[in-house]
Structures are given as structure tokens and as C-alpha cells.
Amino acid sequence: MSKRLRDGLQAFTGCDSTCFVGKGKLKALKMLQGDQHLQDTFSMFGTLETISGQDIQVKETFVCQLYGKYPHTRVDKVRYDKVRQCFKGKKGILPNSEEYDLS
């Protein structure tokens, strides 16, 4: 593994961050090792002043895969699904606009 790739992974996942709680570096590393496109993207992390929309999408898809939510490509959708799953069937949760007529 190149130093740039290692540094890119470290910058993205953090050293003591809870952002990737329960996933650890090993799973992320194994995913990177199996995908040259991911390696190229993470190797460039921190070397450019701006990040392209395509690179953001690649990293967002990576996070979805890290949490086993493939083929999702949007972290917001994965988070929404996880929250809905946690509260599924519980009373007292505010309804969304589809469940409640606001007129």
C-alpha cells in the first residue's frame, strides 16, 4: 500500500472518529485493496484543492458499501433507512407528509 493511499484512508476515516462506528479500519482497507478505482480516488485525497463531484460520489458509495447497503449510493438514504428501521412500529413518532394530511 502506498503512503498516499494510507494517508488518504486515514484522512477519510480518522484516527479515533466515531463516524465509522463498529466498522474499523480493516474492513475499509480490504475494500480498498480489491478496487483499483477506489485506490486511485483515495490516493488523491488531500492532494487537490477541490474535490470533484465524481470523487465525492465514489467516496459516498464507499461509505454505503462499508455499511453493507449496496447498491445505495447516497449516505443520506442509508441513514434515513436505518432510522426508520430502528423506529419501525413504534408509536409516538411524528408522521411524515405521506402519512398525514396537512391540509
Looking at this protein, list some descriptive labels.
single chain; 103 residues; mainly alpha
Largest sheet properties: none
Q: Mean pLDDT, rounded to whole units?
A: 78
Round the Cα radius of gyration to an integer and report it. 17 Å
Helix content: 40-55%
**Roughly what fraction of the amino acids lie in strands?**
under 5%
Shape: elongated
Secondary structure tally: strands: 0
Strand and helix order? HHHHH
The class by helix and strand makeup works out as mainly alpha
Gap between N and C termini: 58 Å
| Overall structural domain count | 1
What's the total helix number?
Answer: 5
Q: Which secondary structure elements does this structure contain, and how are they paired or packed?
A:
Blueprint lengths: L2 H11 L10 H10 L2 H8 L9 H14 L8 H12 L17
Helix pairs in contact: 1-3
What's this entry about, in short?
This protein has one domain.
Descriptive report:
The chain is mainly alpha-helical and 103 residues long. It has one domain. It is built from 5 helices and no strands. It has helices at 3-13, 24-33, 36-43, 53-66, 75-86.
